[in-house]
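Notes from the 1:1 (GR / supervisor)

We went over the backlog. Supervisor wanted to see one worked example end to end before approving the batch request, so GR pasted a single chain during the call. The sequence is below; no edits were made to it. Supervisor asked that the structure be written out right there so they could see what the output format looks like.
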Amino acid sequence: MALSPEEFVKRLEAISGSDGILYGRVHLLFEKEQKYQQKALQYKGYLALSDAFKCFFIETTELINTVCRPQIKAPLSEYYPIFVPRLTHGFQSLCGAERIAIYGYPLHAYTLLRNIFDNAVLTSAALQKVTNFYSIEGVTPGKNLDNEEVKRLRKKTEFYVRQRMTGNQSGLTQQVRAELAKWDALFDFEVHGARLSLTGALGWMRGIDSLPILPQFDEIQFAMFMNRYCEVGWMVHRLTPALQPPSVPFPAAWMEKWRILDESFESIVNSLTEQLGKKIGTAIVELVKTKFPFNAQSAFPL
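Structure output shown during the call:
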């Protein structure tokens, strides 16, 4: 039976009232999300760094559009138009993940960081000529696209890059690789099967608690997201200088802002070791400084 748009809506409204309020139960959800947000916004240092980074990245794109592009005379590398959308997508994904976390879904947001990390590692490898942007996409120039061949090349490239960026052929110390392996395994636990999230239902599984469904602030869960956000965000920040076309550098003021943010990311990441004794802090610092070896003067290298 075909319904008009009005009939479609009215039928749903008829089954969604609660205590005389249309869609009343969903307002409970909104209220919990707002309360969660208020508690999440107490982390002033994290929020200051996150918002400063967002301001900087937006300013960077403004510089590209209004200052750099009009001054470019020589043709740019064929890889540059591939690199720029990859990096801006990473930035947008960080923004989206943070919104999800702040409104009460930190572990859902946490899973998004894994993909941003993987893409940042691949991008950094391409900028250092460990691989190239075509191989990352599974494309062989001059060949017709075949879905199976594309998949094989992408997987082969990802495995090759992972070995040289974080694996046995990376040159990173054994201790750092061990810490990164544990860091990676935690992502796997949540990305594949939501195993970290399921711990929140243990009380219900044991018959001693009600089934949790509405957002409820958990400091440990939010801290997991917040720490990983800063670590992955630092990697994305380290890639931003490559947005500079080779012949058109950004202004000195931009470079100073980049340096301040870089130091701030390092400080907040390293605090996990310095203040809490968690080795992952120094491991991420070594990873970023070794495998994302860019600075404010690092123009697009290819």
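Supervisor's comment: The beta strands are 17-18, 21-22.
Batch request approved.
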